[in-house]
Design a protein that fits this description.
- The chain is α+β, with helices and mostly antiparallel strands.
- The protein has 2 domains: 178 residues, Class II aldolase/adducin N-terminal domain (L-fuculose-1-phosphate Aldolase), CATH 3.40.225.10; 186 residues, 3-Layer(aba) Sandwich (L-fuculose-1-phosphate Aldolase).
- The strands form 3 sheets. The protein has an 8-stranded mixed β-sheet with strand order 10-9-8-11-15-14-13-12, with helices on both faces.
- Helix 6 packs across helix 7 and helix 6 crosses helix 8.
- It is globular and about 60 Å long.
- The structure holds zinc ion.
- Zinc ion binds next to loops.
């Protein structure tokens, strides 16, 4: 098993989603190379593959407290609904496998659903390849964490019942991960960057730091830098800790045929940086900012659908990408006055006039402030 500890799987361990590489089993199949199968549950995955011809299946037991959170959220429901917009878009709902996983009659659900949760076992994923499987697993873990954090403060009764009153232990473990984060950044490359190689280097460094600080889920998020009338932006589906070969150079002002290769948030990046107020733009999905914005937007909690600010930062609402309700329309006016904004239930957009140091520091400071605000909420609820 150690020999196949390749990049996608070791990423899951590094991100604290797996306690050990031995907690994952996977199957990959293609007509040319045949079947590749690893892990304790290979026979189970082979049985499922007979029922649904998926090119990649992955079954993994996430590190605690994720498994405890899965078990609690699965109590008395058929599906766990992802709340944050990235997970909603990728996963929708996560059906709960109610029967023994060893009887594979539930497996047909994986034809329509990318991921299912199996209490006490973990998460099973179907995808086009192993890399995509690990991204879906990672997104499912993020969806579970956000749902648990939001439910704990908005409707705690069911979680307390499902955990015999021990839901706060799960929360405490999620908070322990956050406490390892620094308050201040070690310096990033200083701008202004006027040539392409320097801008590329700065984006690679900022992307890695976003991931190391845990400010994105599944290493996703997006980054851009304006160079005169050009825009350098992370490619669609790229991992921010692996940006060297995954950047797109397009126009800052006009639609371009390169655009289809760029991040799906390109319309927002273009509209914000075309105002000329900033050169650098970072977008991440910090856990406690997302959780707090969902809690604040909860109709049960407040009649105001989206509060104007959280921890002093303006909150906007909009859909990923362009279009009539696109995030670009909501973000651009706000980011001409502020250098940071929260997209409700989604994440954070930060700008820098010269380089990525200031926006990344601002995102880190906001996430730390939201984490403290969340802890105050818990204390207030007793
Ligand atoms: Zn996003």
């Amino acid at each position: 098993m150690k020999n196949i500890a390749n990049k996608p799987l070791s990423r899951l361990c590094r991100d604290g989603l797996l306690a050990s590489i031995d907690d994952v089993s996977f199957l990959e199949y293609d007509a040319v190379t045949g079947m590749r199968c690893y892990g304790e549950f290979s026979p189970l995955l082979q049985s499922i593959h007979k029922e649904i011809p998926s090119p990649s299946l992955l079954l993994a037991k996430p590190r605690e407290p994720y498994l405890r959170a899965i078990n609690a959220l699965s109590c008395g429901v058929d599906t766990i609904q992802a709340e944050d917009s990235e997970s909603k878009m990728l996963l929708g709902a996560l059906p709960v496998v109610k029967t023994s996983p060893l009887e594979t009659n539930w497996a047909h659900a994986l034809v329509k659903q990318r991921a299912l949760v199996i209490p006490n076992w973990g998460i099973i994923v179907s995808a086009p390849n192993l890399l995509a499987s690990t991204v879906i697993f990672s997104t499912a873990c993020f969806a579970i964490k956000i749902k648990f954090l939001v439910d704990f403060v908005s409707s705690p009764t069911s979680l307390l019942l499902a955990t015999n009153g021990k839901a706060s232990e799960t929360i405490a473990t999620f908070l322990t991960d956050v406490k390892k984060r620094p308050a201040r950044l070690t310096p990033l490359m200083r701008g202004i960057f006027t040539d392409l190689p320097s801008a590329r280097k700065a984006m690679v460094q900022a992307g890695r730091r976003l991931v190391t600080l845990g400010l994105v889920n599944a290493s996703f998020g997006n980054i851009s830098y304006a160079l005169a009338d050009a825009l350098l932006i992370s490619a669609t589906g790229s991992f921010l800790d692996d940006l060297e070969e995954a950047m797109v150079l397009t126009s800052l002002y006009q639609k371009n045929r390169q655009d289809k290769l760029a991040s799906s948030e390109l319309p927002a990046h273009r509209k914000i940086l075309a105002t000329g107020k900033a050169r650098a733009l970072l977008h991440g999905h910090p856990t406690f900012v997302v959780a707090l914005s969902l809690f604040e937007a909860s109709a049960k909690h407040t009649k105001v659908k989206h509060p104007p600010t959280i921890c002093g930062v303006p909150v906007v609402k909009g859909k990923t990408g362009g279009g009539r309700c696109g995030l670009d329309k909501a973000l651009a006016p706000v980011l001409t006055k502020s250098n940071i904004a929260i997209a409700a239930g989604h994440g954070v957009f930060c700008t820098g006039e010269r380089d990525f140091h200031e926006p990344l520091q601002n995102m880190l400071t906001l996430e730390n402030a939201c984490c403290q605000a969340y802890q105050r909420l818990i204390t207030a609820f007793g």
